Amino acid sequence: MGNENRLLTARNISKSFGKAVIALDRVQFDLRGGEIHALLGENGAGKSTLIKVLTGVEERDGGTVTLNGKQIHPKSTQEAQREGIATVYQEVNLCPNLSVAENIYIGREPRNKFGKIEWKKINADAEELLKKFDLSINVTKNLDNYSVAVQQMIAIARACDIEAKVLILDEPTSSLSTVEVEKLFEIMRKLRQEGMGIIFVTHFLDQVYEVTDRITVFRNGGYVGTFETAQLPRVELVGKMIGKDYASLNESVVAGQLEDAQESTGEELIALAGASSPGTIQDFNLKIRKSEVLGLSGLLGSGRSETARVLFGIDALGSGEMKLKKEKVHFKSPLDAIRSGIAFCPENRKTEGIIADLSIRENIVLALQSKRGLYRKISKREAEKLADEYIKKLEIKTPDADQLIKNLSGGNQQKVILARWLATEPEFLMLDEPTRGIDIGTKAELQKIVIELAKQGMAVLFISSEIDEMLRCCKRMVVLRDMRQVGELHGKEISEEAIMHIMAGGEQ
């Protein structure tokens, strides 16, 4: 396949959300007819924004998109579909309360000369279409009668029936079993043979190397490069995604660890054994001791955040067991975890952390009030004392505790969330991407706070996409891949090279 087979071309695509957020900075992308092309990158890389631009959900600020040699500028998903671009998302965007046949032909229903929909023809055509995908189902039943895998096949069948030239599959395998994934790959290969161009967005590297022809990598809204899959070693791919040159790393050097970071010999505080949660982590074993900062490392979708969600009672533990101080526990909700001395600073502080229209003081006392319950209300005096204490202790930059949290910088917002949890006096603190989007100085401050908390006896689970900062804080690292634990490193074993090697699928 050469450039003469180029189907879709995007050049110098830019997209900003306000002055502060540059989602895409003059990126490029090429898709050939008859290829499966992986679009990869960590959180914030720009993958989703490019897809939204290509499908008319977002209007680009600059650049050109060409399909079959013709410039296009879709203003809606319907317009993109008319041009020949169809998308199947992880969360299938069809109508669960309509029949399978209705979902396939919605907006394109055949009608008789009196304008009435020909239901017999719709049902017969739907059955015939789905046979091409080896699906023999009752097309008159509502879509929500069928599994996610079947719904995705139906969405792909619809895309083929509208004669899409480009099919975008956005994380289609996240909720599928191994057998269902293989079935999807069979369909993808068949469509590739028929000349369709497929953009495949996924966080599973094994799947990338199993089914794709080329890979394009984005990082921080910028274009890193496009590579032939067969010619790009996995460890080099990981390096391009996270911004590290694997060849330049020295495995004998543990880069930049803080001298104060130490591996704990304290007693075991919390443990997972054979833990699995439906659709997330699988057969997970993890032990966390008092007075340690344990790092969880892995690419996006490897199971880092999912592990924290299970430990905090957000996602149910399906099988296996969890122990706290060697006693079995089963948290039905985050409130159970909070009352057991567990705290969790989530990845997205804007949507899952701060309450934007409340003051700093109100944000700080939220978790403690939940822990105490409705009948033990925190007095104004106690709230003021707590807020003032943590503003001083964490050096939160604000005129006073009455300031609305939304008016603070990202780093200071993160400190307020940390203060909220420290006010509950937890024994176990989980930090998911605690320094994302904040300045270097504040990052260093937070890292020192984390190490100091461990020195005082707290167990800390530290999750970050930045290997550098994990090396500074952690003397024990657990590496995840594809929702499973695949390696554990201690002390001087820990290096960027060793972590990337395991993340890419190598042996420890």
Care to describe what's here?
This protein has helices at residues 47-54, 77-83, 100-105, 119-131, 148-161, 178-193, 205-211, 234-242, 304-311, 334-339, 349-353, 360-372, 380-393, 410-422, 440-455, 467-473, 496-503; strands spanning 6-17, 21-32, 35-40, 62-67, 70-72, 85-89, 166-170, 197-201, 214-219, 222-228, 268-276, 284-289, 293-297, 319-324, 327-329, 342-345, 428-432, 459-463, 476-481, 484-490. It is built from 17 helices and 20 strands. Helix 12 crosses helix 13 and helix 12 runs parallel beside helix 14 (410-422). It has 508 residues and is an alpha/beta fold. The model is unreliable at 248-261 (pLDDT under 50). Helices cover 33% and strands 24% of the residues. A 6-stranded mixed beta sheet has the order 6-7-8-3-9-10, sandwiched between helices. The protein has a 6-stranded mixed beta sheet with strand order 16-17-18-13-19-20, sandwiched between helices.
Helix and strand layout, with pairings?
Layout: E1 6-17, E2 21-32, E3 35-40, H1 47-54, E4 62-67, E5 70-72, H2 77-83, E6 85-89, H3 100-105, H4 119-131, H5 148-161, E7 166-170, H6 178-193, E8 197-201, H7 205-211, E9 214-219, E10 222-228, H8 234-242, E11 268-276, E12 284-289, E13 293-297, H9 304-311, E14 319-324, E15 327-329, H10 334-339, E16 342-345, H11 349-353, H12 360-372, H13 380-393, H14 410-422, E17 428-432, H15 440-455, E18 459-463, H16 467-473, E19 476-481, E20 484-490, H17 496-503
Parallel strand pairs: 3-8, 3-9, 6-7, 7-8, 13-18, 13-19, 16-17, 17-18
Antiparallel strand pairs: 1-2, 1-4, 4-5, 9-10, 11-12, 11-14, 14-15, 19-20
Helix pairs in contact: 12-13, 12-14
